[in-house]
Every structure is written in C-alpha cells, then in structure tokens.
Amino acid sequence: MKLEDIKAYCLGKWKAYEDYPFGDIPICYRLNNKIFAQIYPHSEDYKITLKCTADAGQFFRQVYPGVVVRGYHCPPVQQPYWNTIYLDNFPEEELLNMIDHAYDTVLHSFSKKVQKQIGGASNI
After folding, report:
1. FRET label pair with 19: which of 6, 37, 38, 93, CA 20 to 30 Å apart?
2. 6-25, pLDDT tens digit by residue?
C-alpha cells in the first residue's frame, strides 16, 4: 500500500490528526493526544507500527511471522501492545483492518466520558 493511501486512511478516522513528536520520522497519527499509528516511510525500511491489544498483537505475529513483529522501538513492557508491520507486499485489506484495530484500541482506552466527548462510536 502506498504511503499517501495509508496517510489518508489514518486521517480519515474520526478526529485523528497527524503529528511529528519525534522529528520528521516517524509520521504519527493520534486520537486525543494518544498515538495509534507511526509510519516509517523509507523505501529501504518501509514499515508501520500500530497500537494493539496484547491478544491481537500476538495473533498477528503468529499469522505473519517475521513480517509482523513486536513494536521494535518500544521498551519490553510496552512491546506486547504495539506491532511493527513491514509493508513490502503486505495484504492491503489486512493492513486496513489493523489500522482500524489500532484506532479502536486507543479510542476504547479512554473513559466513557472522554469517548463521549470525542464523539462516541456513532461518529466512527
């Protein structure tokens, strides 16, 4: 999937925005100040790191061994909750599902009150 398509998909999520808290790279996507996606756009190392639940993270790592790995940049305690996906020849539909999961994981990490302030599930 092309970089511009991934960026547009992430920005298409309700109240998501692009941010650069670490410099030019990674390109981060946030919801209410929490990161749900980080894109590393270098052609020689094209990858995305996505937020996930521990169970979903383990599932995707088992289904795509060596292609989906624990968040490489995270300290060990956070690694089960982030997956890094190497994007060369990765199935587009699966990537979109994983981005959806990342966004939903961050959304549901907020209290019900904050979720309602964000706009709730009816707008997502």
Report:
1. 93
2. 999 999 999 999 999 999 99
What is the average pLDDT score of the chain? 92
Dihedrals phi, psi of 71, to nearest 5 degrees: -50, 110
118 φ/ψ angles, rounded to the nearest 5 degrees: -65, -35
| Residue 51: strand pairing partners | 82
Report the pLDDT averaged over residues 59-81.
87
Torsion angle (degrees, nearest 10) of CA 10, 12, 111, 39: 10
DSSP for the chain? --HHHHHHHHHTSTTEEEE-TTSSSSEEEEETTEEEEEEE--GGG-EEEEE--HHHHHHHHHHSBTTEEE-TTS-TTTGGGEEEEE-TT--HHHHHHHHHHHHHHHHTTS-HHHHHHHT-GGG-
The Cα angle at residue 93 between residues 72 and 37, in degrees rounded to 5: 35
Cα(28)–Cα(49) distance, integer angstroms: 9
- pTM for the complete prediction? 0.91
